[in-house]
Amino acid sequence: MPELPEVEAVCRRIRRGAEGQLIASARILRPGITLPQSSAETEETLAGRRIGKVWRRGKNILIGTSGAGEDRVLRIHLRMTGNLVLFKDARLVPPAARMVLEFPDRSGLVFTDSRALGRVHLHSLAELESILAELGPEPLSRQFTVQWLAAAASACGQPAKLFLMDQSRIAGLGNIYAAEALFQAGIHPGKRMKTLRMPKIGALHAAIVDILRRAVKVTAAEYRRPGYWGGEEWDFPLRVYGRKGEPCLVCGSKIRSMRQGGRSTYYCPRCQR
DNA sequence: CACAATACCTGCTAGC
DNA sequence: TGCTAGCAGGTATTGT
């Protein structure tokens, strides 16, 4: 489910309560989530370590830890339904809890994930660096410029929607925000990247940055509520995603949907060419 | 190589 | 009411 703004919101929500905490015990309640790493080994390594910095890269949540031996980083990917929540009592945890990091006072950080597609991995700093090197630039960083996007686009024959969702090109966009960015820029999702010219490239860059900034702002506020997510509410106002058959908010044409890369894409046939 | 299909999972909903 | 097909905000792997 979560894309960059939701992952950012989760980081901000847990940061205050998690940073600096001692992990008294770690329990992996669903062994598959650590594959190909061993869940028993993950539990053993984490126990007795202290949580350092919590940060994010693309859709990866990164939790630094220190203790016996070298520093390790816990990398959590929420995939479709994952979430991280701080619990007052880590023994009273919901059925979808997949990992529990319990602190000395019995409170804890809990990874919930109904579909169990999310992943938890423990890395050395060197290992983490090489994994993150596979990701494209952060769209809200200085790295992500119009010039960079123009250069990346000119070398790419992919349809625009697939380009935006490819984490090795830009890190953090997913199905919803990619669709929304293309709508805002007036670009058809099937448009080949290398056929885009300058005013459109600029519009796409501006749309990505604008939408993600606004979504982070709105979503981060909502995610302070610990139970948030589970509900169907989507706080960022969506203009095309999920609106098949409804009128375009700009021109009134019926929003259409198509399949791309096995996923549903929504677009306005008149505004997006 | 690029691209498409499928596997991974559970839960919800629309339609019968 | 109860069943089922289809679909879900993601990504790694397999197949063409």
SSE map:
Layout: H1 4-18, E1 25-28, H2 39-46, E2 50-57, E3 60-66, E4 72-77, E5 82-87, E6 97-102, E7 108-113, E8 119-124, H3 125-132, H4 146-154, H5 160-165, H6 175-185, H7 198-222, E9 256-260, E10 263-267
Antiparallel strand pairs: 1-6, 2-3, 3-4, 4-8, 5-7, 6-7, 9-10
The protein binds a DNA duplex (16 and 16 nucleotides) through helix 6.
Which keywords apply here?
273 residues, alpha+beta, N-terminal domain of MutM-like DNA repair proteins, Helicase, Ruva Protein, domain 3, 2 domains, four-stranded antiparallel β-sheet, 7 helices, 10 strands, DNA-binding
Task: Characterize the structure shown.
- The protein has two domains: 4-132, MutM-like, N-terminal (N-terminal domain of MutM-like DNA repair proteins), CATH 3.20.190.10; 146-267, Orthogonal Bundle (Helicase, Ruva Protein, domain 3).
- Helix 1 packs parallel to helix 7 (198-222), helix 4 crosses helix 7 and helix 6 packs across helix 7 (198-222).
- It is an alpha+beta fold and 273 residues long.
- Helix content is 30%, strand content 22%.
- The longest helix is centred in the last third of the chain and has 25 residues, at 198-222.
- Strands 1-6-7-5 form a four-stranded antiparallel sheet. A four-stranded antiparallel sheet has the order 2-3-4-8, sandwiched between helices.
- It binds a DNA duplex (16 and 16 nucleotides) through helix 6.
